[in-house]
Amino acid sequence: MSLRHAVLGLLAQGPASGYDLRKTFDASLSNVWPATQSQLYGELGKLADAGQVTVAAEGPRGRKEYAITDAGMAELRHWLTEVEPERVRRSDMLLRVFFLGVLDPEDAQGYLRRQVQAVTAQHERFRALADVVDEGDDSLSVYGRIALEWGLRFTETQREWARWAQERIAREATAAKG
Amino acid sequence: MSLRHAVLGLLAQGPASGYDLRKTFDASLSNVWPATQSQLYGELGKLADAGQVTVAAEGPRGRKEYAITDAGMAELRHWLTEVEPERVRRSDMLLRVFFLGVLDPEDAQGYLRRQVQAVTAQHERFRALADVVDEGDDSLSVYGRIALEWGLRFTETQREWARWAQERIAREATAAKG
DNA sequence: GTACCCATGTAATCAGTTACATGATTCC
DNA sequence: GGAATCATGTAACTGATTACATGGGTAC
């Protein structure tokens, strides 16, 4: 049910069309909540039916500009302050870790080595993004920067963990041989 | 498509029934890949149709014990070594952060304070789990412990981040007033 | 006039959740 | 005999992904 709130949150910053929202999603929200074009248009329709957004203006090429209503703002605030975030997060990266025992130790270490590389690359992408976001002073930039800081710290932690895990498996393998 | 591989991974440790798998999921895999009973039985049926598992034995009460086949092991190894894990992870906790600007600073800080509490509680649960897992010496315990270490480090990082974010918002609010 | 971007929508499919439905066996 | 546990399955619904389909406006 979070896509609905993501849309409300973006419309709380100002009116926008489905097309505008898609670009904002791709640019800033895609790291925490990806959404496809068809999902967005569908959700806007449902929100309009529920009275949480309205078509504020129509433009060329059938463009519909949506605005959040009072009911929509109330729902957004409710979600922000009263609804507890999901604590379980699916991770197929960690799921694989449970089963590394079916590989020989070299391949298990290879898996973790690739994770170090991948997460390092992602850290660099976040770093580059931070430079851009630091320019902005709108609400989405200010709080987007805080979310991005999470990404920077998270990728750093994950890199250290993957290195630690690699070593632990190496020691495990040596102990088994000797 | 990861549930399929989670099931293969568990059956790689030894034969089991759908009922057994459900218990193992609840006990160890639920933190990285939750699955419901109905999903499990459905997936076992599909895997059997695909020839990646077989019914190795039947027991009382209609119990079917499944075993992984060579084709299933090949698929599992392929998934572990060749398929890149998803890098995007949905987080409604972080999604909310983007929109904290619609709240007044006190409520925004309240949100982050609650996250500190929630993640601290989860850290403690992981710590308790670690004591239990450290006892086991089977493959799932050894690698499960490595996954758990990720959880311990991740929750620690998240707690520090949430504290930092709280302070940053406090400073932001003071600067806006002054 | 043609290529590119703006702009919206539908259909099919898949994964995951919740609820329902049923019955056998074991323990006391 | 009754409760708890073992054990499997189906149905309805929701959310997300992929692909398809269409057409208007703008810049050159």
TrEMBL record, chains A, B:
Domain spans labelled Transcription regulator PadR C-terminal: 90-169
Protein name: PadR family transcriptional regulator
SUPFAM superfamilies tied to this protein: Winged helix' DNA-binding domain
One protein family per Pfam: Vir_act_alpha_C
Ranges where the Transcription regulator PadR N-terminal domain occurs: 7-77
Domain of life: Bacteria
Organism: Wenjunlia tyrosinilytica
InterPro entries: Tscrpt_reg_PadR_C (IPR018309), Tscrpt_reg_PadR_N (IPR005149), WH-like_DNA-bd_sf (IPR036388), WH_DNA-bd_sf (IPR036390)
